[in-house]
Fold:
Amino acid sequence: MQTFKELLTDYRWELAFVLFLILLEAGLSVLFPLFIGYAVDDAVNQQYQGAILLSGLGLATLIIGAGKRFFDSRVYARIYQELGLTIGAKPKEPVSKRSAHLGFLSEAVEFFENSLPEIINGLIALVGTILLIGSMNQTVFIGCMVSMILVIIVYGASQKYTLKYHTSYNEELENRVDVLSQNSPISLNWHLRKVMKWNIRLSDLETINFSIVWLIMISFLVLSIFNSVDGSAMGHGTLFALILYLFQYIEQVMTMPMFYQEGIRLSEILRRLNKGSISVQA
Structure:
């Protein structure tokens, strides 16, 4: 039976190939608004080269994305199966804790398989979008940086509470099998109430953060559109591409904090699994 580090070593080439496909897909995705702008400019002039390039970009992204998903699902399935044996085959650990840890392991593998590629995609898209916005409009670029700093402040201020709520939530989940084995409706009701209490607190905190960030982003969008259109000497395609990049920037900024919260939960899960003498740290 192997630890997570040993599994990463055994699967290093497969994981490196997955990472390559993730980066390639992310790089291609960043180009879509730019190629849409080219297609618009060519369409205005009754030309089709931009449309052909856009179609080629779409096909290439489809092939790379589908190939990555077929490949990485099988790699992570093998990792989960091998590490699950390590966690499950510990007779000295209570069944309740082993059951909870297998659930935590499933969440961790799900994070690496689904969330991590999206995080990498998002980071590349965010950086690429900001750089392309900067090449089109310096004032909007400054607005991007200011709004991002404000978002970082909002989520940084709530990090301590997020970790606290995740810790309490996971501690309660570890007791689930023991509670069920008591066959007591009162104990089960109390357990479920505590689980939902921490779930509600996490949801409320995320709602507050999301609302503040949304107000920041919608203000940035309105001001940026006015700045871009007012007296702009851009071509129609370039202006359209800039507005698309603004929407893409806002989408990435709104999405990344959600992955940040998942990352906090993952770190708490890995700490809990390590505490159970299972080395799963990367």
In short: The chain has a mean pLDDT of 78. The CA atoms of residues 162 and 261 lie 7 Å apart.
